[in-house]
Design brief:
The complex is a heterodimer of chains A (284) and B (290).
Chain A: H1 10-29, H2 47-53, H3 56-88, H4 93-104, H5 111-121, H6 128-134, H7 147-172, H8 176-184, H9 189-197, H10 202-217, H11 221-227, H12 238-247, H13 251-280
Chain B: H1 5-8, H2 11-40, H3 46-49, H4 62-104, H5 109-127, H6 134-143, H7 150-174, H8 178-186, H9 191-202, H10 204-220, H11 223-228, H12 237-240, H13 255-285
Helix pairs in contact in B: 2-13, 4-5, 4-7, 4-10, 4-13, 5-7, 7-10, 8-9, 10-13
The chains are: A mainly alpha (284), B mainly alpha (290).
Chain lengths: 284, 290
């Protein structure tokens, strides 16, 4: 491979290298005091880290981001697993694919457009609360203090299909004869789901957990659209906060938040990539 | 058999119950797109006075006219940027993936380690919260006098989508039978012609999947244009829709029409070529199976 085909990999190396440069740039400036007040950056050690991570907005953002990610990983996995179980029980291929597509289509609509639609659906008078009222069900105040849970609901609608796909792929890889043998022994579908499908979907669980975490940890558009801007007390996340800091020229503080975000993501991406390499590249 | 008595009692009832569950789930999942379509055709007064889930007559196009005036320019800008972004990301990604595939299959362990390191970089570029690297990128673009220019946007999008292209194409190239590549090498074919005459044709469905996945993802990207587009005349459609919200329940009558205009191209691609998109998603994790 040491011949001129090395040219093939230059674009990939160039842009991956650029990305590393951007990450290191953030790391470097996170140790300075660069802001609109100090236009000439000066090295200050961990001082900017201290002032940033002790601010209540940062703590709120961090907690919101973690809350969104944890709930998404748990609820997304459960819904994805149940949907996959439901789809796997459908015998007709074309019927299964049609229903599968309905659970996947939200992934193709931009979160900005989703946000616009849900702003109307969450309207207390003409939105879904109208139907909940007719059914004498509780009518939550979707866009008040609990906005973050409304945002999680939208994300569950959008991302559960992702989780479902990986569980379904795991189920499909199970040897059909095991399942048929269980049917012949008189097991019903629920029993097969619990005793055969779930124990054999470890791969689906790992992929779905990693992707749900990464996709929900980097959520930006929904809080931005739903609350109408980069700063909002009830739905601030690490990524909306770093944008607010950048937008208002607190460059070093924004770099601090960025570096923390990248560090958390790296802790998930690197093991996932090393693990995934076996499947991706070596086809194991 | 005795222990299964209760479950065996009503196979028809069970089948009916399953269909009811499926129908309820389908309705829940379709509510947003249903609301988007019916409300787009309401008049400016009907959209704020009628229930969002009930269609009204007569159908009007005023909301579309209003949204179209704002979004027709951004729609064209998006097309002229995202088409090259997705083609370049997929093609250059495929080239890199072919080389990586050679490295990771090499008998020389140093090449294999190198291949693994590049691969982790590629995964990093695909999965990292890219928003966290946009401030340095914007400052870099500004220092190169590229901020807000077409070239600057293209370079920025490639920074985040070319790794995705390389990662997905690695999956699809990994399953190209290696004896095909070896046979072509024995015939004295160059890497260049092996790539074009063997690897690309055999992995064409994967190429289309990658292309479609990157097109839809980059089309919908909100943060890149939010930060990097500085000139209103080069606004992209994914960000243009934000003119139709004030946040926290502030309603604009044309927002449904705006949502339709922003999402009809990805949706049409999904309706006709959805299985390629799904294969693209699966390649993010499970190596193209199922």
């Amino acid at each position: 491979m040491a011949n001129k085909s090395v040219l093939f990999v230059i674009p990939v190396l160039f842009f991956s290298g650029l990305l590393i440069y951007l990450i290191l740039w953030n790391l470097y400036y996170s140790f300075t005091d660069w802001s609109v007040i100090n236009p000439v950056p000066k090295f200050v050690g961990f001082e900017t880290y201290l002032t940033t991570i002790t601010s209540s907005t940062f703590i709120d953002s961090l907690l919101h981001s973690l809350e969104i990610s944890v709930i998404m990983v748990i609820a997304g996995n459960i819904i994805g697993l149940l949907l996959a179980g439901l789809l796997f029980s459908i015998k007709s291929n074309s019927y299964r694919i049609a229903i599968m597509s309905i659970f996947v289509y939200p992934l193709t609509i931009s979160m900005a457009a989703n946000g616009l639609i849900f702003l109307w659906l969450f309207n207390p008078i003409i939105g879904i609360n109208w139907i909940l009222g007719l059914l004498h069900l509780p009518q939550p105040a979707w866009l008040a203090q609990d906005t973050i849970y409304s945002i999680i609901l939208i994300m569950l609608w959008a991302y559960s299909g992702l989780s479902m796909l990986f569980y379904l792929a795991s189920f499909m890889n199970i040897d059909k004869s095991i399942i048929e043998a269980a049917y012949i022994d008189g097991a019903n579908y629920f029993r097969i789901f619990r005793k055969i499908l779930i124990p054999n979907s470890m791969n689906g669980f790992i992929i779905s957990t990693a992707l749900l975490f990464l996709f929900s940890f980097r959520v930006f558009t929904l809080p931005y659209i739903i609350t109408g801007g980069p700063i909002n007390y009830y739905a601030e996340t690490l990524l909306t906060y770093q944008y607010y800091l950048f937008d208002s020229s607190y460059f070093a503080q924004s770099s601090v938040v960025d570096t923390i975000v990248v560090a958390i993501a790296l802790a998930v991406v690197v093991p996932y990539a090393l693990l995934g390499m076996k499947r991706w590249v070596y086809g194991e | 058999m005795e222990s299964n008595k209760y479950i065996r009692l009503g196979p028809i009832a069970k089948a009916v119950l399953k269909e009811i569950v499926i129908i309820i789930l389908i309705i829940i999942w379709l509510v947003p797109i249903y609301a988007m379509i019916i409300n787009g055709f309401k008049s400016n007064t009907a959209v704020v006075t009628s229930k969002a889930l009930i269609p009204t007559l007569p159908l009007t196009f005023s909301a579309y006219q209003e949204a179209w005036t704002v979004l027709n320019g951004p729609l064209l800008n998006s097309l002229s940027l995202i088409v090259p972004v997705s083609i370049l990301s997929t093609f250059l990604g495929a080239l890199g993936a072919y080389y990586l595939n050679g490295l990771t299959r090499s008998f020389n362990s140093r090449y294999r380690v190198l291949g693994n390191i590049i691969f982790v970089l590629v995964a990093l570029g695909t999965f990292i919260p890219y928003q966290a690297t946009l401030m340095p990128l914007a400052i870099l673009m500004a220092s190169l006098n590229l901020l807000g220019s077409y070239g600057g946007l293209l370079l920025s999008y490639l920074t985040f989508y070319l790794p995705t292209g390389a990662l997905l194409m690695s999956v699809f190239i990994a399953v190209v039978p290696s004896y095909l590549i070896e046979a072509a090498k024995l015939d004295g074919a160059s890497d260049f012609s092996i790539f074009f005459k063997v690897v690309l044709p055999v992995s064409l469905p994967g190429f289309i999947s990658t292309l479609i996945f990157i097109f839809i993802e980059s089309w919908n990207n909100f943060f890149l244009p939010l930060v990097l587009v500085t000139n209103p005349s080069s606004e992209l459609v994914s960000v243009g829709v934000r003119y139709f919200t004030g946040g926290f329940g502030t309603l604009y009558n044309a927002s449904f029409a705006a949502a339709v205009i922003a999402s009809f191209i990805p949706l049409i691609i999904f309706i006709f070529l959805g299985r390629y998109f799904i294969r693209g998603i699966l390649a993010l994790g499970s190596g193209g199976k199922a």
